[in-house]
Design brief:
Elements lengths: L20 E3 L2 H4 L7 H6 L7 H13 L5 E3 H9 L2 H7 L3 H17 L3 H14 L9 H17 L3 H14 L13 E3 L6 E3 L4 H17 L3 H21 L6 H14 L3 H18 L2 H17 L3 H18 L2 H19 L25
Antiparallel strand pairs: 1-2, 3-4
Helix pairs in contact: 4-6, 6-7, 7-8, 8-9, 8-10, 9-10, 10-11, 11-12, 12-13, 13-14, 14-15, 15-16
Length: about 375
């Protein structure tokens, strides 16, 4: 699970030069069955196997530990294979393998919009795994596509896999899921086993609440997250992962804020703050103090707003964080300026300014 609301994903990475060498690693690649490049090389060139002869070495390069390649060149080489599959009316698995590899490359390049589109094409081409060896990759892509599509603003598309997974794995059954994955080494190629994990499915429900919120369905988002909270609290405590509640509590605070439930928003932020203090998560501590200050200011409680700001400053001083001390002074000046400003003329009811954005979601669970 991870911070959700107002997520920026990993789009900031898109500024990196597209032709920079990419180092292959085992993050996604280890989950993928090894490509039999030697077998592909032995095949005679025909219309039906020309794809395999060209795809196998690309796939092996992408998913070989430590392999280096140009991301833009690899994307172009993979894209050139799609017409071959369409001409030969290839089986769904071949389309899935191609789009899965494309999505992996786009993700590594920080191109979440393209990664989401490739993932969506893969899941349309093969809605259900046709080969057990690819079942985990299918699940992995279904989960990742929610994040990628949402980060690209394609919330309706992101809802589909989120809701499908929620139906497949009800909240009431999460405790029966494995606590962690393992690798089955009984065959020639290690295969992932014991999945999905409890954390993966808890993350899916958190994604679902995030997407609903971003669609403006605040009440449905709040309801989804409220259903999730007791289950997540119990499961994360059992797993020794209580600090992971920080993201869900931030989401609930945002949902409540949008619905004008300020007391509830404050309660969720305070619980988030206490967890962050216990975990030594300085960034979340500062963010929680800040948002509590903003919330108090918007509720016309200047004394409480200044109290939260003073606590922010005391924490920064205790931690020796000079940059945060400087920011506290800037916040104090701004807060004083806002309090001294004459009241704005009354207009038609407008929603109060939303507290600052939450930190970006973590790129991987």
């Amino acid at each position: 699970m991870r911070h959700q609301l107002l997520a920026q994903g990993i789009a900031a990475l898109a500024g990196l030069a597209a032709a920079m060498p990419i180092v292959a690693h085992a993050q996604t690649g280890r989950n993928a069955p090894a490509a039999a490049s030697s077998s592909a090389d032995a095949l005679p060139t025909t219309a039906s196997n020309n794809f395999e002869k060209r795809f196998a070495p690309l796939y092996a390069t992408v998913f070989s530990e430590g392999g280096r390649f140009s991301g833009s060149a690899m994307s172009a080489d993979l894209q050139a294979l799609e017409p071959i599959l369409k001409r030969t009316k290839a089986p769904p698995l071949d389309f899935f393998r191609l789009y899965y590899t494309q999505a992996t490359i786009f993700n590594r390049r920080g191109m979440t919009d393209d990664a989401g589109q490739a993932a969506q094409k893969a899941l349309v081409a093969m809605p259900k795994p046709s080969d057990p060896q690819w079942a985990y990759q299918h699940l992995e892509l279904s989960i990742a596509s929610i994040r990628w599509l949402a980060d690209s603003g394609r919330y309706e598309a992101a809802l589909k896999p989120a809701q499908a997974l929620a139906v497949q794995y009800p909240l009431s059954q999460i405790a029966k899921l494995p606590t962690q994955m393992r690798w089955d080494n009984s065959g020639p190629t290690p295969q992932p086993a014991d999945y999905p994990t409890q954390l993966q499915i808890l993350g899916v429900y958190e994604d679902l609440g995030y997407v609903l919120h971003e669609q403006g369905q605040y009440r449905q988002a709040l309801q989804t997250n409220q259903w999730l909270l007791p289950v997540a609290r119990e499961r994360l405590q059992a797993l020794g992962e209580t600090p992971r509640l920080r993201g869900l509590l931030a989401n609930l605070a945002q949902n409540s804020y949008k619905l004008g439930q300020m007391d509830a928003a404050r309660k969720y932020l305070q619980e988030r703050l206490q967890i962050a203090l216990g975990a030594g998560d300085h960034a979340t501590v500062y963010d929680s103090y800040f948002q509590l200050m903003v919330l108090a200011h918007e509720q016309n409680d200047p004394q409480q707003a200044h109290q939260w700001l003073s606590t922010y400053e005391q924490y920064a001083r205790a931690q020796g964080h000079s940059d945060q001390l400087a920011r506290a002074q800037q916040l104090r000046d701004e807060l004083n300026g806002r309090e001294a400003a004459p009241p704005a003329p009354q207009r038609a009811q407008q929603p109060a300014q939303q507290p600052p954005q939450q930190p970006p979601r973590q790129p991987k669970r």
